[in-house]
Amino acid sequence: MQECYADVIVDISSEKLDRVFQYRVPEEQQELLEPGMMVEIPFGRGNRIITGIVTGITGHTDYDPAKIKSILRVKTDGIGSESRLIGLAAWIRDRYGSTMIQALKTVIPVKKTVKSRSQKTLHLKLDQEEGQKRLELFRKKHQTARARLLEALLEEPVLPYGLVTEKLNITGTVIRALEAQEVLYCTEEQVYRNPIGSQSAGAYTITLNEEQQAIADGIIEEWQEQPNGRYLIHGVTGSGKTEVYMELIAHAVSCGQQAIVLIPEIALTYQTVLRFCKRFGDRVSVMNSRLSAGERYDQFERAKQGKLDVMIGPRSALFTPFPNLGIIIIDEEHEPAYQSETMPRYHAREVAAQRGKMEGAKLVLGSATPSLEAYYGAKNGYYRLFTMEKRAKDAVLPEVSIVDLREELREGNRSILSRRLQKLMAERLETGQQTMLFLNRRGYAGFISCRSCGHVMKCPHCDVSLSLHNNGKLVCHYCGYEEDKPKICPGCGSGFIRSFKAGTQQVEESVQKEFPMARILRMDLDTTKGKEGHARILAAFANHDADILIGTQMIVKGHDFPDVTLVGVLAADLSLHIADYRAAERTFQLLTQAAGRAGRGTLRGEVVIQTYDPLHYSIQAAAAQDYTGFYEQEILYRSLAGYPPAGNLVAVHCSCEDEQQLQMACDYLKKFIVQISERYRLSVLGPADEMIAKIQDVHRMVIYLKHENLKVLIAVKNKIEQYTRINRGFQTVTIQFEVN
Ligand code: ADP
Ligand code: ZN
Ligand code: ZN
């Protein structure tokens, strides 16, 4: 057999975490050893035997093979949740390109910053008679503090430590003295902070309808045979996906397994959490970004010790160290929030699939508008697909109409509101129903379009919108292509070609002008400052304190307002022309979600989508609530352009304080990539300025690599990592990879 070496780290909580030691793998261990396993190794000069964690296995070594020590033993007894998470970190590091320390910090909360609270209690060790005797003695000797404490314990033989020190004014010295004299003894118990307080499970009343039951049965039937089965539930908003999740969790719990439920933070409302608590009582816990480091650590400890069955939370809850994880659920699977923005830039969906594979846990994705990745995966057999077409409470889907804003302009209406939307809003005000106005402003990046014909300036090479820069140039953020901003529209010759600028505040002003009597609430970053700003506005709207709610994408997530019967989308194009290959997908998702807000009660809802591009397939498909129609069009575009999921794309993000240095480094890097890419045949785009080319004086550029095979891209990524690590020109340049 060939020689084989293992990279081993020796202490996960230390700063030297990233320091890897190489050990020889004895022949008999070669087949069984895998990254993430714990091993016993001789360490240091004295060959102290310690435990290490294998982070990688290779066939070669950079050291003198004669001097490399051997692994003594593979520890099979220590395969706890922690070591499995270490294995996951190793995978994350390899897949997304980060250091092992970054990957481990993502997966395991750092120990040293947290102190868990404990509760100490004092117990009387003597019986009454003996106690009384001892009390006399203390009094005689004028040991008043001891006497006071003993007196209290004779009355109440178990006392909390805090009460004794604070209320009886007794010092630790006195307590220790009485402990030494065997008058009392002391116990200590960990108290974990529980962010949701205690809740008891009540009687659960909802019975699944046929559609829901069929899905739950389909998954439960193959629970044993497919321990790491993967599923996608495509169900319209309100079809009752959450009830299906809970049924599956209940099954997992009955098998002695635990569940993780990921929900985007913005949709993690009190109501949602309460539904889970009602069913699973205080074996549910919630993570969110407002928890302190201590609270987070406590939640993970409770999970590790088997005190929890369900963890609900955003992305980071994925790493809950459950002893016997049975199922991971990702609700609203298409949400961009599942993509990490910091190193390692992992995607929760992919990491969840990997964790499921490693630990034998199922993965269930749910969405009304699945991501292209998930649906493509379902089409190709990677996920088993389930579809839900009806709303659970028999509410009907809303009626959607599209208004052409070019037409409005032609007819002399320059208001933000089309005539149709104005008319419908007036009706709502008369009947006391509510309206939501949605300004789709995600990615307002200064794209240029013609208000007369709808023509949008695009990159001739990449088929994404060009962005207007301060210097008056239009720039492509994928390949760096540039051109001057045109004065007249190349499509129709009109002079109405400009960037679209309208904020929620302007919308509020013009709506108020149009309807002076209407009570308006506005929800955007300005009005939601402070901890509960967001919830306060939603509560006010639910209370009918306002007739109209105006907001950005914040208002379209997950909230039920039964009296909202009209939703207006003011300019659906705004997200269509962001400089991102996912622009159409995001637009479709936002429009579908916005439409889903209308008519959730007994009244039928109406939706008006205003746009300069009424024929665009994402807008047409959203209006018709036709997901598969949208998918077919979009996947065609992706495969023609080589974009994920049909192809694979790796972004190499480079940043540096010095603009020139950055430019030079990127040029070098490009040369290097082109050189090695001949063998791999991948296409290289850029370097180009990032969408936001400078943040806090750090300049940012990006190079894109495209190839149909992800393995090839990962191999190139590893080469780049090597190259930039040893090359001096990259010392001041930060490099981050983003996969797909
Ligand atoms: P989704 O997660 O698909 O958006 P939810 O699970 O939130 O849908 O369900 C929408 C509403 O329908 C909720 O108020 C829920 O309580 C209700 N609901 C779901 N399933 C049922 C059912 N089988 N019987 C009665 N009500 C249901
Ligand atoms: Zn035009
Ligand atoms: Zn381009």
Written account of the structure:
The chain is α/β, with parallel strands linked by helices and 740 residues long. The chain folds into five domains: 5-107, 3-Layer(aba) Sandwich (GIY-YIG endonuclease); 117-191, no CATH class; 210-393, Rossmann fold, CATH 3.40.50; 395-444 and 500-638, P-loop containing nucleotide triphosphate hydrolases (Rossmann fold); 648-739, Ribosomal protein S10 (Alpha-Beta Plaits, 2-Layer Sandwich), CATH 3.30.70.600. Helices cover 34% and strands 22% of the residues. A seven-stranded parallel beta sheet has the order 11-12-10-13-14-9-15, with helices on both faces. Strands 16-26-25-17-24-23 form a six-stranded parallel beta sheet, sandwiched between helices. Strand 19 (467-468) and strand 20 form a beta hairpin. Helix 3 (128-140) runs antiparallel to helix 4 (144-155) and helix 7 packs parallel to helix 8. The longest helix has 22 residues, at 659-680. The protein is globular, with a radius of gyration of 31 Å. The protein starts with a strand and ends with a strand. The protein binds adenosine-5'-diphosphate (ADP) and zinc ion (ZN) (2 copies).
